[in-house]
Amino acid sequence: MSEINQHYIEKLFIDYAKVNTRSDAGSQTVPTTPGQVVLAKQVETDLKKLGVSEVKFDETNGYVTATLPGNASKGISALGFIAHLDTADFPADNIQPQVHPNYDGQDVVLNEAQNIVLKVSEFPNLKKVKGQRLITTDGTTLLGADDKAGVAALFGALEFLLKNPSVKHGPIRIAFGPDEEIGRGAKRFDAAHFGTDFAYTLDNGQPGQFEYETFNASEAKIEIAGTAVHPGDAYGLMVNAVTLGNEIISALPKDEVPEKSKDHDGFILVNHFDGTVAHASI
User: Fold this and answer.
1) Do 171 and 55 meet the contact criterion of CB atoms below 8 Å apart?
2) Which PROSITE patterns match (predicted)?
């Protein structure tokens, strides 16, 4: 029996990581950014090269789907696996993946010219991957392991099963979708057409980690209208929207924040605050 082809997975991951698939909550297109279409079509091509069946890119919802037919003699229910193509709202132009073979567990200089260093003191999980191949960016962009690592891993699993027919399985359905980071992709997923009772998402986490719950959140946007008056004439008249915004944020529970929460603790995350005297948004 052949082993998982790590070189194949790494090459795909690096190729996919270089494509800017940053999603855009302000866009109304499907998907919300053209880079996601570029990657979807590349994934479609790579699935056909791999030799799986029923490969399709649905332009109406942005999903690429495919099937690995079952090879077991008795009927086994179809099982699904899903990963998303978009990345979070961080710089994603000109991504430069860097491979660090046999990582030594120390700080990593990502960009000497800009003095960008990946520090173990700030990211202690780095200690867990000492001795392994570590892939980073040059520090000026995100890498996109969420979720292109999941995309590449699914390809690796499919390739392994195709090369090892002695591993019996039922039909396996695969889906690669858009706009997960902004909460739209799942709404467009055609579950009925996918045709499985159960499916698992490969998305982040540690090796061996299995989550059987889902994250749930709501978003609130606050617009504050102030009154702009020349500072020399402001007494009793100016209403500073920035000051009001600071008061709102200061009134939030100070311990209900991500950096002080774990497990099932809830939290409130202020991820944007911008303003002038006349107007502020949170």
Assistant:
1) no
2) ARGE_DAPE_CPG2_1 (PS00758), ARGE_DAPE_CPG2_2 (PS00759)
